[in-house]
Amino acid sequence: MAKNSNPVFCILNGYPKASRENFDRQNVGHPHHLYKEALLRLAPGCRVDVLFIADPETSFPEGASIGAYDGFIWTGSDLTIYHLDDVRVTRQIELARAIFRAGVPSFGSCWGIQMAAVAAGGEVKKNPKGREWGIARDIRLTEAGRSSPLLKGKPEKFDGFIMHLDEVTRLPAGASLLATNAHTYVQALEVRHGKGVFWATQYHPEYNLLEMARLIAARAEPLVREGFFPEPGAVKAHAEKMRALHQNPQAQALREELKVGEDILSAEIRERELKNWIEQLVLNRANSPAST
User: Fold this and answer.
1) CATH architecture of the domain with residue range 8-206+271-291
2) What residues pair up with 160 in beta bridges, in sequence order?
3) pTM (two decimals)
4) What's the pLDDT tens digit per position in 272-281?
5) Which residues are catalytic?
6) CATH 3.40.50.880 in the chain, residues?
């Protein structure tokens, strides 16, 4: 790669094929699309490849390898990372370990933070508090988080989009806890392992109100079953209010009803982690003499 060239990213979509097809049927945005749109805005001129890494037949494009990329992004997934008898899971963990060994920086959300922890020797289990969905409230920076380049520019306390059942329960060696809240202890994490660095969040910097509304509507059955709503119509009504606020962010009544502030509405605040990762880790690698 020539010095001062544009960065090359690889987005690793962790969802299996059946789940991606279900997204299409339910009109849910694909996470690799959300990340790709963000990358093209935040790193103009970059190149982005997408791998559906849960599919056993998936491999790198012809002529490419881990070292061909300046950064890897891990999306969410509906797989369970501690199901180690599932090849769709284990092949992803093996790849994450190979990326650590190669020294290429990674970023991930949701499944991504669990991957960062497990691949480096940590642990993930089901959260005994149940599902955290929609908006994670009152995420707070730890002491390490306040000085972390990942969270540079974030408020001391903020909300973020979220949808998960599992959580990181044991940090691996080389990990720093950067953010936490009352529902999920590990909300943001840096993992240094092998030659690599993995910055990750349990919440989703890549989402917005519209995309979370679409996901919530598609999750109506479990949200009702788990007691968050009385019936599917109430889920749909909640999702519609989120869509309406996305269309009109200045609607004060909706902002108050949904308890949404600028940390959710402003892309500048919401995407800060991804922007910091690109600027601090990816561009430094892309423009370093070692990558020429």
Assistant:
1) 3-Layer(aba) Sandwich (3.40)
2) 136
3) 0.93
4) 999 999 999 9
5) 110, 204, 206
6) 8-206+271-291
